[in-house]
Protein backbone atom coordinates (compact mmCIF):
# COMPACT_ATOMS: atom_id res chain seq x y z
CA UNK A 1 0.00 0.00 0.00
CA UNK A 2 1.42 3.43 -0.97
CA UNK A 3 2.03 5.55 2.11
CA UNK A 4 1.30 9.26 2.49
CA UNK A 5 1.63 12.22 4.80
CA UNK A 6 -1.46 14.37 5.20
CA UNK A 7 -1.05 18.10 5.48
CA UNK A 8 -3.72 20.50 6.69
CA UNK A 9 -3.22 24.07 5.50
CA UNK A 10 -5.63 26.36 7.28
CA UNK A 11 -5.19 29.75 5.58
CA UNK A 12 -7.00 33.05 5.93
CA UNK A 13 -9.32 32.49 3.01
CA UNK A 14 -9.26 28.75 2.55
CA UNK A 15 -8.79 25.39 4.22
CA UNK A 16 -6.92 22.61 2.42
CA UNK A 17 -6.01 19.02 3.00
CA UNK A 18 -3.24 17.53 0.91
CA UNK A 19 -1.75 14.08 0.50
CA UNK A 20 1.98 13.88 -0.16
CA UNK A 21 3.84 10.75 -1.24
CA UNK A 22 7.42 9.82 -0.46
CA UNK A 23 8.72 11.57 -3.59
CA UNK A 24 7.31 14.81 -2.16
CA UNK A 25 4.57 14.92 -4.80
CA UNK A 26 1.09 16.17 -4.04
CA UNK A 27 -1.20 13.34 -5.11
CA UNK A 28 -4.50 14.77 -3.89
CA UNK A 29 -5.82 18.10 -2.71
CA UNK A 30 -9.15 19.20 -1.34
CA UNK A 31 -9.99 22.84 -0.70
CA UNK A 32 -12.80 24.97 0.73
CA UNK A 33 -13.16 28.75 0.71
CA UNK A 34 -13.59 30.28 4.13
CA UNK A 35 -16.03 33.13 4.80
CA UNK A 36 -14.69 36.03 6.86
CA UNK A 37 -16.74 38.55 8.83
CA UNK A 38 -16.22 42.31 8.69
CA UNK A 39 -18.38 43.61 11.59
CA UNK A 40 -16.76 47.09 11.60
CA UNK A 41 -14.30 48.87 9.32
CA UNK A 42 -10.87 47.41 10.06
CA UNK A 43 -12.26 44.44 12.03
CA UNK A 44 -11.83 40.97 10.52
CA UNK A 45 -13.27 37.96 12.32
CA UNK A 46 -13.84 34.29 11.62
CA UNK A 47 -16.04 31.54 13.05
CA UNK A 48 -13.57 29.13 14.69
CA UNK A 49 -16.14 26.32 14.76
CA UNK A 50 -16.62 26.77 11.03
CA UNK A 51 -12.84 26.50 10.57
CA UNK A 52 -12.82 23.24 12.52
CA UNK A 53 -15.71 21.80 10.50
CA UNK A 54 -14.06 22.84 7.24
CA UNK A 55 -10.89 21.01 8.31
CA UNK A 56 -12.88 17.88 9.09
CA UNK A 57 -14.62 18.05 5.72
CA UNK A 58 -11.46 18.48 3.64
CA UNK A 59 -9.61 15.76 5.56
CA UNK A 60 -12.37 13.27 4.94
CA UNK A 61 -12.95 14.33 1.34
CA UNK A 62 -9.32 14.17 0.31
CA UNK A 63 -9.13 10.55 1.46
CA UNK A 64 -12.46 9.67 -0.10
CA UNK A 65 -11.77 11.27 -3.49
CA UNK A 66 -8.26 9.83 -3.72
CA UNK A 67 -9.56 6.47 -2.50
CA UNK A 68 -6.82 6.34 0.12
CA UNK A 69 -7.45 4.45 3.34
CA UNK A 70 -6.64 6.15 6.68
CA UNK A 71 -4.29 3.18 7.25
CA UNK A 72 -2.01 4.65 4.57
CA UNK A 73 -1.57 7.96 6.40
CA UNK A 74 1.70 7.96 8.32
CA UNK A 75 1.08 11.24 10.07
CA UNK A 76 -0.51 14.67 9.89
CA UNK A 77 1.22 18.04 9.66
CA UNK A 78 -0.63 21.27 10.36
CA UNK A 79 0.14 24.71 9.06
CA UNK A 80 -1.98 27.75 9.65
CA UNK A 81 -2.72 31.42 9.24
CA UNK A 82 -0.73 32.80 12.15
CA UNK A 83 -1.67 35.17 14.99
CA UNK A 84 -5.41 34.61 14.50
CA UNK A 85 -6.69 34.27 18.03
CA UNK A 86 -9.26 31.86 19.43
CA UNK A 87 -10.34 31.63 23.08
CA UNK A 88 -12.56 28.77 24.19
CA UNK A 89 -14.02 27.09 27.26
CA UNK A 90 -11.86 24.26 28.55
CA UNK A 91 -14.92 22.22 29.56
CA UNK A 92 -17.28 22.71 26.62
CA UNK A 93 -14.74 23.37 23.87
CA UNK A 94 -16.96 26.29 22.74
CA UNK A 95 -15.22 29.49 21.58
CA UNK A 96 -16.30 32.48 23.67
CA UNK A 97 -16.01 34.88 20.72
CA UNK A 98 -15.27 34.81 16.99
CA UNK A 99 -11.64 34.23 16.08
CA UNK A 100 -9.89 37.59 15.67
CA UNK A 101 -8.09 37.36 12.33
CA UNK A 102 -4.48 38.54 12.11
CA UNK A 103 -5.56 41.47 9.91
CA UNK A 104 -8.04 42.73 12.48
CA UNK A 105 -7.45 46.06 14.17
CA UNK A 106 -9.72 45.89 17.27
CA UNK A 107 -6.74 46.15 19.56
CA UNK A 108 -5.19 49.29 18.03
CA UNK A 109 -6.11 51.29 21.17
CA UNK A 110 -4.51 48.70 23.45
CA UNK A 111 -1.34 48.91 21.35
CA UNK A 112 -1.28 52.70 21.65
CA UNK A 113 -1.59 52.40 25.41
CA UNK A 114 1.28 49.91 25.65
CA UNK A 115 3.44 52.22 23.57
CA UNK A 116 2.56 55.20 25.75
CA UNK A 117 3.53 53.17 28.80
CA UNK A 118 6.98 52.92 27.24
CA UNK A 119 7.04 49.14 26.71
CA UNK A 120 7.90 49.16 23.02
CA UNK A 121 11.59 48.31 23.24
CA UNK A 122 11.01 45.59 25.85
CA UNK A 123 8.45 43.87 23.64
CA UNK A 124 10.73 44.18 20.65
CA UNK A 125 13.81 42.83 22.39
CA UNK A 126 12.04 39.87 23.92
CA UNK A 127 9.65 38.87 21.12
CA UNK A 128 11.37 40.18 17.97
CA UNK A 129 8.03 41.79 17.06
CA UNK A 130 6.62 45.30 17.16
CA UNK A 131 3.60 46.37 19.20
CA UNK A 132 0.86 46.11 16.60
CA UNK A 133 -2.72 44.76 16.55
CA UNK A 134 -1.45 42.14 14.07
CA UNK A 135 -0.07 39.90 16.84
CA UNK A 136 -2.13 37.73 19.18
CA UNK A 137 -1.25 39.23 22.58
CA UNK A 138 -3.32 42.39 22.36
CA UNK A 139 -6.13 40.46 20.65
CA UNK A 140 -6.31 38.15 23.70
CA UNK A 141 -6.51 41.19 25.97
CA UNK A 142 -9.24 42.68 23.78
CA UNK A 143 -11.40 39.54 24.04
CA UNK A 144 -10.88 39.30 27.80
CA UNK A 145 -11.81 42.99 28.15
CA UNK A 146 -14.85 42.90 25.84
CA UNK A 147 -16.59 39.57 26.33
CA UNK A 148 -18.73 39.62 29.44
CA UNK A 149 -17.34 37.47 32.23
CA UNK A 150 -14.31 36.44 30.17
CA UNK A 151 -11.63 37.91 32.38
CA UNK A 152 -13.12 36.36 35.48
CA UNK A 153 -13.34 32.95 33.82
CA UNK A 154 -9.78 33.31 32.52
CA UNK A 155 -8.54 34.05 36.02
CA UNK A 156 -10.35 30.94 37.27
CA UNK A 157 -8.45 28.89 34.69
CA UNK A 158 -11.60 28.02 32.75
CA UNK A 159 -10.49 29.34 29.35
CA UNK A 160 -7.87 28.34 26.82
CA UNK A 161 -6.15 30.41 24.15
CA UNK A 162 -4.77 29.17 20.90
CA UNK A 163 -3.70 30.22 17.48
CA UNK A 164 -5.31 28.10 14.76
CA UNK A 165 -2.92 25.10 14.94
CA UNK A 166 -3.51 24.92 18.71
CA UNK A 167 -7.28 25.06 18.21
CA UNK A 168 -7.12 22.34 15.56
CA UNK A 169 -4.83 20.03 17.56
CA UNK A 170 -7.21 20.45 20.52
CA UNK A 171 -10.20 19.53 18.35
CA UNK A 172 -8.43 16.70 16.50
CA UNK A 173 -7.35 15.07 19.76
CA UNK A 174 -10.86 15.32 21.22
CA UNK A 175 -9.88 18.10 23.64
CA UNK A 176 -6.91 16.20 25.08
CA UNK A 177 -3.89 18.16 23.86
CA UNK A 178 -3.32 21.91 24.32
CA UNK A 179 -0.03 22.73 22.58
CA UNK A 180 1.47 25.19 20.13
CA UNK A 181 4.63 24.93 18.08
CA UNK A 182 7.46 27.35 18.74
CA UNK A 183 7.10 29.15 15.36
CA UNK A 184 3.47 29.99 16.11
CA UNK A 185 4.29 30.92 19.70
CA UNK A 186 6.82 33.42 18.35
CA UNK A 187 3.95 35.39 16.73
CA UNK A 188 1.96 36.06 19.87
CA UNK A 189 3.85 39.00 21.46
CA UNK A 190 3.89 36.91 24.64
CA UNK A 191 6.82 34.60 23.86
CA UNK A 192 10.47 35.28 24.59
CA UNK A 193 12.24 34.03 21.45
CA UNK A 194 15.69 34.06 23.04
CA UNK A 195 14.73 32.12 26.17
CA UNK A 196 12.16 29.96 24.38
CA UNK A 197 9.40 30.46 26.92
CA UNK A 198 6.28 32.49 27.64
CA UNK A 199 7.41 35.75 29.23
CA UNK A 200 5.88 36.53 32.65
CA UNK A 201 6.63 40.24 32.40
CA UNK A 202 4.94 40.61 29.01
CA UNK A 203 1.92 38.59 30.19
CA UNK A 204 1.59 40.92 33.14
CA UNK A 205 1.72 44.04 30.94
CA UNK A 206 -0.87 42.49 28.64
CA UNK A 207 -3.05 41.30 31.51
CA UNK A 208 -3.13 37.73 30.18
CA UNK A 209 -3.22 34.90 32.78
CA UNK A 210 -0.62 32.21 32.03
CA UNK A 211 -3.24 29.48 32.55
CA UNK A 212 -4.69 30.32 29.11
CA UNK A 213 -1.52 29.44 27.27
CA UNK A 214 -0.66 26.19 25.47
CA UNK A 215 2.51 24.20 26.10
CA UNK A 216 5.23 25.12 23.60
CA UNK A 217 6.54 22.20 21.52
CA UNK A 218 9.00 21.86 18.65
CA UNK A 219 7.77 22.03 15.03
CA UNK A 220 8.45 18.36 14.34
CA UNK A 221 7.36 15.81 16.95
CA UNK A 222 4.28 13.78 17.81
CA UNK A 223 1.94 16.04 19.80
CA UNK A 224 -0.85 13.50 20.10
CA UNK A 225 -3.19 11.31 18.03
CA UNK A 226 -6.44 12.06 16.27
CA UNK A 227 -9.56 10.89 18.04
CA UNK A 228 -10.56 7.60 16.38
CA UNK A 229 -14.01 8.93 15.57
CA UNK A 230 -12.49 11.48 13.17
CA UNK A 231 -10.94 9.25 10.51
CA UNK A 232 -11.69 5.83 11.93
CA UNK A 233 -8.15 5.45 13.19
CA UNK A 234 -5.81 7.30 15.57
CA UNK A 235 -3.23 9.08 13.42
CA UNK A 236 -0.15 10.89 14.74
CA UNK A 237 -0.23 14.68 14.59
CA UNK A 238 3.49 15.05 14.12
CA UNK A 239 4.35 18.54 12.96
CA UNK A 240 3.12 22.13 13.00
CA UNK A 241 4.37 25.53 11.92
CA UNK A 242 2.95 28.92 11.06
CA UNK A 243 2.19 29.03 7.36
CA UNK A 244 5.03 31.38 6.47
CA UNK A 245 7.62 29.37 8.34
CA UNK A 246 6.20 26.16 6.85
CA UNK A 247 6.54 27.70 3.38
CA UNK A 248 10.21 28.51 4.09
CA UNK A 249 10.72 24.89 5.13
CA UNK A 250 8.72 23.64 2.14
CA UNK A 251 10.96 25.70 -0.16
CA UNK A 252 13.90 23.75 1.30
CA UNK A 253 15.37 27.09 2.48
CA UNK A 254 17.61 25.34 4.97
CA UNK A 255 20.75 27.49 4.51
CA UNK A 256 21.41 30.89 6.05
CA UNK A 257 20.38 33.65 3.63
CA UNK A 258 17.85 31.45 1.76
CA UNK A 259 14.76 33.57 1.16
CA UNK A 260 11.20 33.02 0.01
CA UNK A 261 8.25 35.32 -0.61
CA UNK A 262 4.68 34.04 -0.36
CA UNK A 263 1.96 35.80 -2.36
CA UNK A 264 -1.29 34.87 -0.62
CA UNK A 265 -3.82 37.12 1.11
CA UNK A 266 -0.78 39.10 2.24
CA UNK A 267 2.87 38.85 1.19
CA UNK A 268 5.37 37.45 3.63
CA UNK A 269 9.06 37.36 2.94
CA UNK A 270 11.23 35.23 5.19
CA UNK A 271 14.98 34.80 5.24
CA UNK A 272 16.61 31.95 7.12
CA UNK A 273 19.15 33.42 9.57
CA UNK A 274 20.15 30.11 11.20
CA UNK A 275 20.81 30.10 14.94
CA UNK A 276 21.05 33.92 14.98
CA UNK A 277 18.05 36.04 15.98
CA UNK A 278 18.95 39.21 14.03
CA UNK A 279 17.34 42.42 15.31
CA UNK A 280 16.06 44.67 12.53
CA UNK A 281 16.55 48.40 12.21
CA UNK A 282 13.85 48.75 9.55
CA UNK A 283 10.69 47.18 10.87
CA UNK A 284 11.41 43.60 9.89
CA UNK A 285 10.34 41.04 12.45
CA UNK A 286 12.67 38.57 14.10
CA UNK A 287 10.86 35.31 14.33
CA UNK A 288 11.38 31.63 15.03
CA UNK A 289 11.68 29.71 11.77
CA UNK A 290 11.27 26.26 13.33
CA UNK A 291 12.68 23.88 15.87
CA UNK A 292 13.68 20.52 14.44
CA UNK A 293 15.79 17.87 16.21
CA UNK A 294 16.31 20.17 19.19
CA UNK A 295 17.77 22.95 16.99
CA UNK A 296 15.99 26.30 17.15
CA UNK A 297 16.44 28.42 14.01
CA UNK A 298 15.38 31.97 13.30
CA UNK A 299 14.21 34.07 10.38
CA UNK A 300 13.86 37.71 9.47
CA UNK A 301 10.41 38.50 8.15
CA UNK A 302 8.83 41.31 6.20
CA UNK A 303 5.03 41.57 6.21
CA UNK A 304 2.68 43.05 3.63
CA UNK A 305 -0.89 42.89 4.94
CA UNK A 306 -2.75 43.16 1.64
CA UNK A 307 -1.52 41.40 -1.51
CA UNK A 308 -3.85 38.77 -3.04
CA UNK A 309 -6.58 40.35 -0.91
CA UNK A 310 -6.37 43.36 -3.25
CA UNK A 311 -7.11 41.04 -6.17
CA UNK A 312 -10.10 39.72 -4.26
CA UNK A 313 -11.21 43.33 -3.78
CA UNK A 314 -11.09 43.82 -7.56
CA UNK A 315 -13.31 40.76 -7.86
CA UNK A 316 -15.70 41.15 -4.90
CA UNK A 317 -15.55 44.86 -4.05
CA UNK A 318 -15.15 46.67 -7.38
CA UNK A 319 -16.48 43.66 -9.31
CA UNK A 320 -14.34 44.49 -12.34
CA UNK A 321 -13.06 40.94 -12.72
CA UNK A 322 -14.79 37.59 -12.31
CA UNK A 323 -11.76 35.61 -11.21
CA UNK A 324 -8.22 36.34 -10.04
CA UNK A 325 -6.75 34.53 -13.04
CA UNK A 326 -8.23 37.12 -15.46
CA UNK A 327 -5.89 39.78 -14.12
CA UNK A 328 -2.88 38.52 -16.07
CA UNK A 329 -4.49 38.98 -19.47
CA UNK A 330 -6.05 42.33 -18.54
CA UNK A 331 -2.79 43.68 -17.10
CA UNK A 332 -0.82 42.77 -20.21
CA UNK A 333 -3.48 44.30 -22.48
CA UNK A 334 -1.94 47.72 -21.66
CA UNK A 335 1.70 48.78 -22.11
CA UNK A 336 2.03 50.11 -18.59
CA UNK A 337 -0.12 51.37 -15.72
CA UNK A 338 0.49 54.88 -17.20
CA UNK A 339 1.32 56.51 -13.91
CA UNK A 340 -1.51 54.92 -11.91
CA UNK A 341 -0.49 53.63 -8.48
CA UNK A 342 -2.76 51.73 -6.11
CA UNK A 343 -1.65 51.59 -2.49
CA UNK A 344 -3.80 48.76 -1.08
CA UNK A 345 -3.39 49.76 2.57
CA UNK A 346 -6.89 48.51 3.44
CA UNK A 347 -5.86 47.60 6.98
CA UNK A 348 -2.77 49.80 7.33
CA UNK A 349 0.79 49.09 6.22
CA UNK A 350 3.24 46.57 7.69
CA UNK A 351 7.01 46.52 7.05
CA UNK A 352 8.72 48.97 7.02
CA UNK A 353 6.01 51.48 8.03
CA UNK A 354 3.91 49.73 10.71
CA UNK A 355 1.18 52.31 10.29
CA UNK A 356 -2.24 50.94 11.23
CA UNK A 357 -4.08 54.24 10.49
CA UNK A 358 -3.28 54.57 6.79
CA UNK A 359 -5.94 53.33 4.34
CA UNK A 360 -5.91 52.47 0.65
CA UNK A 361 -5.47 55.10 -2.08
CA UNK A 362 -5.38 55.33 -5.86
CA UNK A 363 -3.15 57.94 -7.52
CA UNK A 364 -2.52 59.25 -11.00
CA UNK A 365 -5.93 58.66 -12.62
CA UNK A 366 -6.61 60.49 -15.88
CA UNK A 367 -9.54 60.50 -18.29
CA UNK A 368 -7.72 57.76 -20.18
CA UNK A 369 -7.47 55.39 -17.20
CA UNK A 370 -9.23 52.08 -17.79
CA UNK A 371 -9.92 49.11 -15.60
CA UNK A 372 -6.88 47.40 -17.14
CA UNK A 373 -4.63 50.15 -15.74
CA UNK A 374 -6.18 49.81 -12.29
CA UNK A 375 -5.80 46.02 -12.37
CA UNK A 376 -2.22 46.29 -13.54
CA UNK A 377 -1.46 48.86 -10.84
CA UNK A 378 -2.92 46.52 -8.19
CA UNK A 379 -0.69 43.66 -9.37
CA UNK A 380 2.29 46.00 -9.46
CA UNK A 381 1.56 47.06 -5.88
CA UNK A 382 2.32 43.50 -4.72
CA UNK A 383 5.71 43.70 -6.40
CA UNK A 384 6.51 47.20 -5.13
CA UNK A 385 5.66 46.23 -1.56
CA UNK A 386 7.84 43.14 -1.91
CA UNK A 387 10.73 45.20 -3.23
CA UNK A 388 10.55 47.35 -0.11
CA UNK A 389 10.90 44.16 1.93
CA UNK A 390 13.91 42.90 -0.03
CA UNK A 391 15.70 46.19 0.38
CA UNK A 392 15.47 46.25 4.16
CA UNK A 393 16.07 42.51 4.39
CA UNK A 394 19.43 42.87 2.61
CA UNK A 395 20.41 45.84 4.79
CA UNK A 396 19.51 44.21 8.09
CA UNK A 397 20.86 40.74 7.38
CA UNK A 398 24.02 41.68 5.52
CA UNK A 399 23.17 38.99 2.92
CA UNK A 400 22.90 39.99 -0.73
CA UNK A 401 20.05 38.18 -2.42
CA UNK A 402 20.74 36.73 -5.83
CA UNK A 403 17.51 34.88 -6.13
CA UNK A 404 14.24 34.60 -4.31
CA UNK A 405 11.91 31.59 -4.20
CA UNK A 406 8.19 32.28 -4.47
CA UNK A 407 4.97 30.52 -3.57
CA UNK A 408 1.31 31.22 -2.80
CA UNK A 409 -1.81 31.59 -4.93
CA UNK A 410 -0.77 34.68 -6.90
CA UNK A 411 2.48 33.24 -8.31
CA UNK A 412 0.49 31.64 -11.12
CA UNK A 413 0.37 35.16 -12.51
CA UNK A 414 3.30 35.36 -14.95
CA UNK A 415 2.92 39.12 -15.38
CA UNK A 416 3.30 39.60 -11.63
CA UNK A 417 6.36 37.32 -11.47
CA UNK A 418 8.08 39.07 -14.38
CA UNK A 419 7.30 42.51 -12.95
CA UNK A 420 8.62 41.33 -9.57
CA UNK A 421 11.89 40.35 -11.19
CA UNK A 422 12.03 43.61 -13.17
CA UNK A 423 11.33 45.88 -10.23
CA UNK A 424 13.81 44.16 -7.91
CA UNK A 425 16.50 43.20 -10.40
CA UNK A 426 16.50 39.74 -8.80
CA UNK A 427 16.07 36.26 -10.18
CA UNK A 428 12.68 34.84 -9.17
CA UNK A 429 12.52 31.07 -8.83
CA UNK A 430 9.10 29.43 -9.04
CA UNK A 431 9.10 25.82 -7.86
CA UNK A 432 7.06 23.16 -9.61
CA UNK A 433 4.96 22.67 -6.51
CA UNK A 434 3.30 25.96 -5.63
CA UNK A 435 1.95 24.61 -2.34
CA UNK A 436 5.17 25.16 -0.36
CA UNK A 437 3.20 25.84 2.81
CA UNK A 438 1.39 22.51 2.84
CA UNK A 439 4.50 20.68 1.67
CA UNK A 440 6.49 22.28 4.51
CA UNK A 441 4.02 20.99 7.10
CA UNK A 442 4.15 17.52 5.53
CA UNK A 443 7.98 17.63 5.63
CA UNK A 444 8.00 18.64 9.32
CA UNK A 445 5.58 15.88 10.29
CA UNK A 446 7.28 13.40 7.95
CA UNK A 447 10.67 13.92 9.61
CA UNK A 448 9.09 13.20 13.01
CA UNK A 449 7.60 9.86 11.95
CA UNK A 450 10.54 8.75 9.78
CA UNK A 451 8.66 9.15 6.47
CA UNK A 452 11.72 11.13 5.30
CA UNK A 453 15.11 10.73 6.90
CA UNK A 454 16.73 14.17 6.82
CA UNK A 455 16.68 17.72 5.50
CA UNK A 456 19.22 16.57 2.88
CA UNK A 457 16.71 14.07 1.54
CA UNK A 458 14.06 16.81 1.46
CA UNK A 459 16.41 19.19 -0.39
CA UNK A 460 16.93 16.55 -3.09
CA UNK A 461 13.18 16.61 -3.87
CA UNK A 462 13.25 20.21 -5.20
CA UNK A 463 12.01 20.82 -8.76
CA UNK A 464 11.85 24.20 -10.50
CA UNK A 465 8.94 25.25 -12.75
CA UNK A 466 10.27 28.54 -14.12
CA UNK A 467 12.90 31.18 -13.45
CA UNK A 468 12.08 34.86 -14.16
CA UNK A 469 15.05 37.12 -14.96
CA UNK A 470 15.06 40.94 -14.85
CA UNK A 471 14.47 42.56 -18.24
CA UNK A 472 13.84 46.18 -17.24
CA UNK A 473 16.49 48.87 -17.56
CA UNK A 474 17.84 50.13 -14.24
CA UNK A 475 16.72 53.74 -14.87
CA UNK A 476 13.11 52.73 -15.58
CA UNK A 477 13.06 50.45 -12.53
CA UNK A 478 14.21 53.22 -10.23
CA UNK A 479 11.86 55.80 -11.72
CA UNK A 480 8.83 53.54 -11.29
CA UNK A 481 9.86 52.66 -7.75
CA UNK A 482 10.26 56.34 -6.83
CA UNK A 483 6.67 56.87 -7.96
CA UNK A 484 5.56 54.08 -5.64
CA UNK A 485 7.37 55.61 -2.67
CA UNK A 486 5.70 58.96 -3.41
CA UNK A 487 2.29 57.27 -3.53
CA UNK A 488 2.84 55.57 -0.15
CA UNK A 489 3.98 58.84 1.38
CA UNK A 490 0.89 60.61 0.06
CA UNK A 491 -1.43 57.85 1.29
CA UNK A 492 0.02 58.16 4.78
CA UNK A 493 -0.21 61.96 4.71
CA UNK A 494 -3.90 61.71 3.77
CA UNK A 495 -4.63 59.66 6.91
CA UNK A 496 -2.59 61.69 9.39
N1 LIG B 1 -3.74 34.30 -11.18
C1 LIG B 1 -3.73 35.07 -10.10
N2 LIG B 1 -3.26 36.34 -10.17
C2 LIG B 1 -3.22 37.13 -9.08
N3 LIG B 1 -3.64 36.74 -7.86
C3 LIG B 1 -4.12 35.51 -7.74
C4 LIG B 1 -4.19 34.61 -8.83
N4 LIG B 1 -4.71 33.44 -8.38
C5 LIG B 1 -4.94 33.62 -7.06
N5 LIG B 1 -4.60 34.86 -6.66
C6 LIG B 1 -4.70 35.43 -5.30
O1 LIG B 1 -4.04 34.55 -4.42
C7 LIG B 1 -4.70 34.54 -3.16
C8 LIG B 1 -4.87 33.11 -2.71
O2 LIG B 1 -3.63 32.59 -2.44
P1 LIG B 1 -3.44 31.57 -1.24
O3 LIG B 1 -2.00 31.27 -1.21
O4 LIG B 1 -4.42 30.49 -1.41
O5 LIG B 1 -3.89 32.53 -0.03
P2 LIG B 1 -4.16 32.29 1.51
O6 LIG B 1 -3.30 31.12 1.93
O7 LIG B 1 -3.74 33.59 2.11
O8 LIG B 1 -5.62 32.06 1.70
C9 LIG B 1 -6.03 35.22 -3.32
O9 LIG B 1 -5.98 36.43 -2.59
C10 LIG B 1 -6.14 35.49 -4.81
O10 LIG B 1 -6.69 36.76 -5.06
O1 LIG C 1 -3.36 32.96 5.31
P1 LIG C 1 -2.13 33.47 4.67
O2 LIG C 1 -1.42 32.43 3.86
O3 LIG C 1 -2.31 34.75 3.94
O4 LIG C 1 -1.09 33.82 5.86
C1 LIG C 1 -1.42 34.65 6.89
C2 LIG C 1 -0.21 34.86 7.77
O5 LIG C 1 0.18 33.72 8.44
C3 LIG C 1 -0.45 35.98 8.72
O6 LIG C 1 0.68 36.20 9.52
UniProtKB/TrEMBL annotation:
<feature type="binding site">
    <location>
        <position position="13"/>
    </location>
    <ligand>
        <name>ATP</name>
    </ligand>
</feature>
<feature type="binding site">
    <location>
        <position position="308"/>
    </location>
    <ligand>
        <name>ATP</name>
    </ligand>
</feature>
<keyword id="KW-0547">Nucleotide-binding</keyword>
<dbReference type="InterPro" id="IPR018483">
    <property type="entry name" value="Carb_kinase_FGGY_CS"/>
</dbReference>
<keyword id="KW-0808">Transferase</keyword>
<dbReference type="InterPro" id="IPR018484">
    <property type="entry name" value="FGGY_N"/>
</dbReference>
<feature type="binding site">
    <location>
        <position position="265"/>
    </location>
    <ligand>
        <name>ATP</name>
    </ligand>
</feature>
<feature type="binding site">
    <location>
        <position position="312"/>
    </location>
    <ligand>
        <name>ATP</name>
    </ligand>
</feature>
<keyword id="KW-0418">Kinase</keyword>
<feature type="binding site">
    <location>
        <position position="12"/>
    </location>
    <ligand>
        <name>ATP</name>
    </ligand>
</feature>
<feature type="binding site">
    <location>
        <position position="134"/>
    </location>
    <ligand>
        <name>glycerol</name>
    </ligand>
</feature>
<feature type="binding site">
    <location>
        <position position="265"/>
    </location>
    <ligand>
        <name>ADP</name>
    </ligand>
</feature>
<dbReference type="GO" id="GO:0019563">
    <property type="term" value="P:glycerol catabolic process"/>
</dbReference>
<comment type="pathway">
    <text>Polyol metabolism; glycerol degradation via glycerol kinase pathway; sn-glycerol 3-phosphate from glycerol: step 1/1.</text>
</comment>
<feature type="binding site">
    <location>
        <position position="308"/>
    </location>
    <ligand>
        <name>ADP</name>
    </ligand>
</feature>
<comment type="function">
    <text>Key enzyme in the regulation of glycerol uptake and metabolism. Catalyzes the phosphorylation of glycerol to yield sn-glycerol 3-phosphate.</text>
</comment>
<feature type="binding site">
    <location>
        <position position="82"/>
    </location>
    <ligand>
        <name>sn-glycerol 3-phosphate</name>
    </ligand>
</feature>
<feature type="binding site">
    <location>
        <position position="12"/>
    </location>
    <ligand>
        <name>ADP</name>
    </ligand>
</feature>
<dbReference type="GO" id="GO:0005829">
    <property type="term" value="C:cytosol"/>
</dbReference>
<protein>
    <recommendedName>
        <fullName>Glycerol kinase</fullName>
        <ecNumber>2.7.1.30</ecNumber>
    </recommendedName>
</protein>
<feature type="binding site">
    <location>
        <position position="243"/>
    </location>
    <ligand>
        <name>sn-glycerol 3-phosphate</name>
    </ligand>
</feature>
<feature type="binding site">
    <location>
        <position position="83"/>
    </location>
    <ligand>
        <name>glycerol</name>
    </ligand>
</feature>
<dbReference type="GO" id="GO:0004370">
    <property type="term" value="F:glycerol kinase activity"/>
</dbReference>
<feature type="binding site">
    <location>
        <position position="82"/>
    </location>
    <ligand>
        <name>glycerol</name>
    </ligand>
</feature>
<comment type="subunit">
    <text>Homotetramer and homodimer (in equilibrium).</text>
</comment>
<dbReference type="GO" id="GO:0006072">
    <property type="term" value="P:glycerol-3-phosphate metabolic process"/>
</dbReference>
<feature type="binding site">
    <location>
        <position position="243"/>
    </location>
    <ligand>
        <name>glycerol</name>
    </ligand>
</feature>
<dbReference type="InterPro" id="IPR005999">
    <property type="entry name" value="Glycerol_kin"/>
</dbReference>
<feature type="binding site">
    <location>
        <position position="14"/>
    </location>
    <ligand>
        <name>ATP</name>
    </ligand>
</feature>
<dbReference type="GO" id="GO:0005524">
    <property type="term" value="F:ATP binding"/>
</dbReference>
<keyword id="KW-0067">ATP-binding</keyword>
<dbReference type="Pfam" id="PF00370">
    <property type="entry name" value="FGGY_N"/>
</dbReference>
<feature type="binding site">
    <location>
        <position position="83"/>
    </location>
    <ligand>
        <name>sn-glycerol 3-phosphate</name>
    </ligand>
</feature>
<feature type="binding site">
    <location>
        <position position="134"/>
    </location>
    <ligand>
        <name>sn-glycerol 3-phosphate</name>
    </ligand>
</feature>
<feature type="binding site">
    <location>
        <position position="413"/>
    </location>
    <ligand>
        <name>ADP</name>
    </ligand>
</feature>
<comment type="similarity">
    <text>Belongs to the FGGY kinase family.</text>
</comment>
<feature type="domain" description="Carbohydrate kinase FGGY N-terminal">
    <location>
        <begin position="4"/>
        <end position="250"/>
    </location>
</feature>
<feature type="domain" description="Carbohydrate kinase FGGY C-terminal">
    <location>
        <begin position="261"/>
        <end position="448"/>
    </location>
</feature>
<feature type="binding site">
    <location>
        <position position="409"/>
    </location>
    <ligand>
        <name>ATP</name>
    </ligand>
</feature>
<dbReference type="InterPro" id="IPR018485">
    <property type="entry name" value="FGGY_C"/>
</dbReference>
<feature type="binding site">
    <location>
        <position position="244"/>
    </location>
    <ligand>
        <name>glycerol</name>
    </ligand>
</feature>
<feature type="binding site">
    <location>
        <position position="409"/>
    </location>
    <ligand>
        <name>ADP</name>
    </ligand>
</feature>
Amino acid sequence: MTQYMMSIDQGTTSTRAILVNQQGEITAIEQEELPLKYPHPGHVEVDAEFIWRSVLRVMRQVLQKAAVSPEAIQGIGITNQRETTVIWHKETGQPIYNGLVWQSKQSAGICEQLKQQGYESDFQEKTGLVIDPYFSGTKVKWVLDHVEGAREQAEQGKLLFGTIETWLIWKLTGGKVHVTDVSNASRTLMFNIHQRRWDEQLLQWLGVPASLLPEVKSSSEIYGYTDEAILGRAIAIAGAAGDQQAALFGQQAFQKGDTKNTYGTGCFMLMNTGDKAIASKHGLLTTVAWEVDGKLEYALEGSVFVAGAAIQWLRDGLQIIKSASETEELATAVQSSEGVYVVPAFVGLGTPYWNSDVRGSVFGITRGTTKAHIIRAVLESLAYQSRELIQVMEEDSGYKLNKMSVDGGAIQNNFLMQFQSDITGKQIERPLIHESTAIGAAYLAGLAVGFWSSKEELASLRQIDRVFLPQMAEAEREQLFKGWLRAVKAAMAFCE
